[in-house]
Amino acid sequence: MEITGKKQKLRKNAFILFFLLPTLVCFCVFYLYPIATVVISSFAKWDYTNLNDMQMYSFGHLFDNYKYIFEKYPYFWEGLRNSCIWALCGLVVQVPIATGVALVISKKCRGWKLARNIYVIPNIISSAAMGLIFLQLYNPKYGIINEIIRVFVPNFQDNVLFIPKVNMIALTCAYIFFAGTNMIMVLGQISAIPEEVREAALLDGAKGWTLDRCIVLPLIKDTIKTISILSVSAGFLLYNEVYFLTNGAAGTKSISFLIRELAVVSPRAQYARANAIGAIQILGGLVLILIINMLFRERKQKGGRR
C-alpha cells in the first residue's frame, strides 16, 4: 500500500510538472535569461566600440559601470528620486482611490454599471495616447489647465510642465487617478464575499462604513496587497508619461527614461551602463515588493494580537 501511494504521488507530481514545463521554459527564455544578461553585462565593457563583442572587465574594474552611474552620471540620483516618489504615490494615492471607488460601486446604486465602465475607459487607452491628451491639456496657449490658472493669476503664460516641482505634480496627475484595472480587481474580490457573511454582520449591527471597515476590507486585504504591488511597480517603472509630457526636462527624469537615454539616445550606445541602471532598477523593485509584504504582514500580526 505504501509503495502504491508513493507511485501515485510521483505520477501526480510528474503530471503537474508536465503541464508546468512549457510555462517554465517560457519563463527561463523570455524572463530569466534577459534578467541574467542585464546583470552580467553590467559588469562588462559594452558600448559603441564593441557592439558585437561584449568584454567582461577584470576583477579590479568589475564595478566601473556602477561607479560611473553613482559618481559621474549627472542624472541618476534625480531619476532614482523621482521613480521612488512615483512609487510612493502609487501606494498612498492610487491604491486608496481604486479601493474607495470599488467600495462605492459595490453598493450597486443607480448607474453603478455606467460609472464602472467610465472609470475603466482611461485604462483601455494606451498610456502613450493619454500622454498626448494631457500634453494638450497642459498646453500653455490653449490648454484648460492654464485657463483655470489664469482665473487666479491673469497674466500666467508659463508651461506648468517646465516649472520645477510643479511639473512633478502635473506629471503625476497624468496617470495617478486612472486605476480602473485595480478597481476591477478589488470589485471582483468584494463581489466574491459570501452573502452569508454580510447578513451575519448586518444582524450584529454593522452597517455602512463599519461594515466595510470591519468585514469587507479585512476579507480583501490580499487583493489590496496585490494592487499595491502593481501600483508601486508601475510608478517605479514610469516611462511613457515622462517621455511624452516633458521628455525628462526640468528635473522629471525617471529610471526607465535614463536607461533609454544611455542605450538608445546616446550616440555612444552605452549598453553596459544602461544595464547597470537596469540591474539597480530590478533590485529596487524587489526591495519595494519586500517592503509591501512586510507592511501587510505587520498589519496581519497586529490584527491577530487584537
TrEMBL record:
Keyword tags: Cell membrane, Membrane, Transmembrane, Transmembrane helix, Transport
GO biological process, one term: transmembrane transport
Residues in the signal sequence: none
Subcellular location: Cell membrane
UniProt topology in membrane: Multi-pass membrane protein
All copies of domain ABC transmembrane type-1, residue ranges: 80-292
InterPro entries reported in the protein's UniProt record: ABC_transporter_permease, MetI-like, MetI-like_sf
GO cellular component: plasma membrane
Transmembrane residue ranges: 15-44, 85-106, 118-138, 168-188, 227-246, 276-296
One Pfam family named in its UniProt record: BPD_transp_1
Annotated CDD domains: TM_PBP2
Family statement: Belongs to the binding-protein-dependent transport system permease family.
Official protein name in the record: ABC transmembrane type-1 domain-containing protein
Upper classification of the organism: Bacteria, Bacillati, Bacillota, Clostridia, Lachnospirales
